[in-house]
Amino acid sequence: MKCIKIGILILFCLGIVITSSAQGMNRSENPYYKPYFDSLKNMEWPYKLPILGKQVYKRGYDIPYAYGVSGIYFTQTQEITIQSILLGFNGSNMVDFSEFITFGPTIAATNAYTFRPDIWVLPFLNVYGMIGGGTTETNVSLLKPVGLQTDQHFKASSFGLGATLSGAVGPLWIAWDNNYNFVDVDVVVEPIPAFNSSLRVGHSILNPVNPEKALSVWAGVFFQNISNDTQGSISIKEIFPQLGEGILIDYMYEWANGLPPAQRIVANQIIGKIEDMSNEIDPGNANVDYLLDKKVTSPFNIILGAQYQFNKNIMLRSELGVFGKRSQFLLNLNYRFPGFIKNPNK
Length: 346
Prior knowledge:
The longest helix is centred in the N-terminal third of the chain and has 18 residues, at about 1-20. This protein starts with a helix and ends in a 9-residue tail after the last strand. It has 2 domains: about 1-60; about 70-235 and about 290-335, Lipocalin (Beta Barrel), CATH 2.40.128. The protein is about 20% helix and about 50% strand. Helix 5 (about 245-255) packs antiparallel against helix 6. The protein has a 10-stranded antiparallel beta barrel. By secondary structure, it is an alpha+beta fold. A hairpin with a 4-residue loop joins strand 12 (about 300-310) and strand 13 (about 315-320).
C-alpha cells in the first residue's frame, strides 16, 4: 500500500510539473501574445478532455485540442543482421543451417500509409492507435554456399498502440513517444511486433500576428527493436527466379554432400527443385520454410523534424531520420478538434 501511495504522489507531482510548462515558457508575458493568452485565462473550457485542461487554460497556457486524426506516409530503409537460420522443405521439420549459410548485409525497405486517431487524455499525455498498409522490400545478400542477391517484395498491413509524454524546460519542449506496432506480411506466419521509442527536444516559434500559427523544429533520437524470431514460408520461384546454371548446381550438390544428414536431406530437396527450374521444369508448389533469428543492425539513429501549425485544427509535420544504418522520412497531416463530450454544467 505504501508503494501505491508513493506511485500516486510521483504521478501527481509529475502532472503538476509538466502541466505548468506544457507549452514551454509562459508566453502570456510576451507583449505580442498577451491579449491572446489573457483570453485563454478568461475562457470557460466546456469539454471533459483533456483532464485538467480547464485548469491549464486558466493559468494562461495554450494546449492542443483533445482529439485528432492523422494521415501519415512513412518510408524507412535499414540494415538487418541475420544471426541464425532454420530451414525446411514443404512442411518438413526445420533444421539449423546457421553454421553452413553465411549472410551479408540484409537491407529492408518499407513504404507505409497509416491512419492514426489520438486523444490528449491529460495535457501532458497523448494516447493513440495506428492502422495501415503498404509494401516491404528485402534485399538479401548470401555469401555462402554461393554468392547471391535476391530481392523480395511483399504487401503488408499494420496495427498498433502508443503513448506520448510531453513537457517543457524553459523555452524548449520535450516529447517521449513509445509504441508497439505489429506488421503482418504475406509470407510470415504471425504478425511481426516492433517496439519504437523516440525522444525529441524542440522549440516552437509563434507567428507574431496570430499565436495560433506556429512553426516547431526539433531534433531527437529514434530507437527500434523488432521481434528476434520470424517464421514463414516462401516459394522457391520467388527466392531463386534466375538461379540454375549447371556448374552452379554441381557446386551446390557438392556443398550439400558435406552437410550433416538432416541438413543434407533438406538441402538436396531444395537444390533438386532449383535444378528443375534450370531445366525449364516447373518446380510446382515447392516452398522453403524458414525460421530466422535477426536483429536491427543499428537500433539508434538521429531524427530531425519540423511542424507548421496553420491554426489549432490543422498541422503539417515532416521528419527525417539520418545517421546510423537507418534512414527514414515521415509526412503527417493532422486535424484536431476540441471534442464531443461537454461537462454537464456547461
